[in-house]
Each structure stands twice: as structure tokens, then as C-alpha cells.
Amino acid sequence: MASLKEIRAKVTSIKSTQKITRAMQMVAASKMRRAQERMEVGRPYADSMRRVISHLVHASSDYKHPYMVTRSVDRVGYIVITSDRGLAGGLNINLFKALSKSIQQYQDQSVQAEFAVIGAKGVSFFKNFGGKVTSAVTDYGDKPTFEQINAPVQAMLDDYTNGKIDRIYVVYNKFVNAMTQKPTVNQLVPLPEDSFGEEESGIQTELSWDYIYEPDIKTLIDELLGRYIESIVYQAVMENIASEQSSRMVAMKAATDNAGDLINDLQLVYNKLRQAAITREISEIVGGAAAVS
């Protein structure tokens, strides 16, 4: 059994660790709130972009952008968004499980996959478990600009345009609330058929309006669809950041609570040992006094 000195040293060490985990919990909570605000600010932009594109699509039914044309699938691409750092519970592990499940479904059909990675944890995962990574970005921080994460996205879109891949998915952790993050695998390109449906865009057939588009509808669709897809990926990155911070906050709270429980258990053992030592000393004193008398 450990000595009193060893137990005191353990308690001191755990208390020091507990201070760190409590500080990390508070920092993560603050970062989560800021990330959540940035995430919510970006949603109206994507919604407005979708409505504008929906008007254009319905006004020009004879033109189909390549991003809206479904073709047979021989190769798929995944834009995988992970965190740069750990200590976030099972956030990344759960995401990799969802990704692996999607990959397996295509492998069963003899469809190959390639990956564009955003986040150091994703790079580490594919380095250990294999997979063709065409582009990767790490160290994007808590407030990334789109320019920081653009390279993997553009690499995937270029491969799709050139016919090297036939479908693109974006994989990320969707922020539900402070306690819940949902691993998500969404089809990015070709855009799902209901992306610009009338109900989705708020357009009512019986109240249709005529617009004059400049320079022309085709040019506008080509330009706006690219920006719309960029906004989807950027929003996914912001959702993943909020999920990372919320998961880290929960993990650090659990670590802090566990440290408290461990300290209490050690303190109880310490008190019992100390009580036993005092009792033994008293017994020795009494025994010695009895022997002298």
C-alpha cells in the first residue's frame, strides 16, 4: 500500500491537472460561443445564395451546370473536415466511423475513393490507415478564412470538372447543441435534386416573377454555383469548429469531475492510513508505558 507521502504527492499532482482541465473547459466554452455566433452569421448568406440560384435555375430549365448533372459513379471524392487538436472526446473517432461506413458502401460496388482533408487529425488518420489524399490543409485555427481552406475544395472540384471523380461528399461534425454533435456525410456535387426546389427556395409557382438577368443566366449560374458550394464547405468548417469546442468543453468537464472524485477517494485512503498510524503510535506509547510500570 502507498505511504502517506506518496498519497499526498498523488493528490497534489491530480489537483494540478484538475486546474488545467478546468481552465481548458472554460476556454472551450468561450470559444464555442464565439464559433456558434460565427456559424449562425453564415447561414443567411448560404440561404440567400440558394434562393437566387433557385430563381436562375427555374428561369433557365434548358441549361444544366455540370454540378447539377448526375452521372454514373466510378470514383467518389470526400472533403473530410476534422479538428487540428485532440482532447475533444470521441469527436473525430465518431466522424471517421461515419466516413468508413460510407466508403465501405462504395467499395462493395467496386467504386474507388479519394480524399481532400481539412484538419491535422484527418491527415494523421489517413497516414495511419491509408487512402489517397489529393490535398490537405492543417492549422486553420478558430477563425479560418475561406482562402485558408480553399485548396482541398478546389482540388476536388477540379477533379470533378475534369471527370476524374463522379461524386463529392463533405464530411464534418454537425453542431446540434452544446451537448450533441452529429457526424454528417452530405453529398456536395452533383447538387441534390431538391437543393433548388420551389418549396426549398420559397418560390411559389402561382406567384412567379419575371427578372432581367445581366450579363446572362448561364454566366450567373456558373459564377454563383461555385460560390454556393464554397459557402456550404465553409459553413461545414464553422459547424465542425463549434462541435470541436463543445466536445472539448464536455470532455474537460468530465475530466475535471473525475479528478475531483479521484482526489476524494485518495483523501479517504489518506485519512484512513493516518488514523491507523495515529492509533498504532498510541498503542505503542501505551504498551511502552505499561512495560515501564
UniProtKB/TrEMBL annotation:
Spans traversing the lipid bilayer: none
| A GO CC term attached to the entry | plasma membrane
Entry keywords, A to Z = ATP synthesis, Cell membrane, CF(1), Hydrogen ion transport, Ion transport, Membrane, Transport
Q: What GO terms describe the biological role, i.e. biological process, of this protein?
A: proton motive force-driven plasma membrane ATP synthesis
Would the keyword Cell membrane be found if you checked this record's keyword annotation? yes
Q: How does it sit in the membrane?
A: Peripheral membrane protein
- Describe the family membership recorded for this protein in Swiss-Prot or TrEMBL: Belongs to the ATPase gamma chain family.
Function text = Produces ATP from ADP in the presence of a proton gradient across the membrane. The gamma chain is believed to be important in regulating ATPase activity and the flow of protons through the CF(0) complex.
What's the protein called, per UniProt?
ATP synthase gamma chain
- Which SUPFAM superfamilies does this entry report, sorted A to Z? ATP synthase (F1-ATPase), gamma subunit
Instruction: Give the matching PANTHER family.
Output: ATP SYNTHASE GAMMA CHAIN, ATP SYNTHASE SUBUNIT GAMMA, MITOCHONDRIAL
* Localization annotation: Cell membrane; Membrane
Known InterPro entries for this protein? ATP_synth_F1_ATPase_gsu (IPR035968), ATP_synth_F1_gsu (IPR000131), ATP_synth_F1_gsu_CS (IPR023632)
Query: Which source organism?
Result: Psychrobacter luti
Quaternary structure and partners: F-type ATPases have 2 components, CF(1) - the catalytic core - and CF(0) - the membrane proton channel. CF(1) has five subunits: alpha(3), beta(3), gamma(1), delta(1), epsilon(1). CF(0) has three main subunits: a, b and c.
* GO terms of molecular function: ATP binding; proton-transporting ATP synthase activity, rotational mechanism
- Give the matching NCBIfam families: ATPsyn_F1gamma, PRK05621.1-1
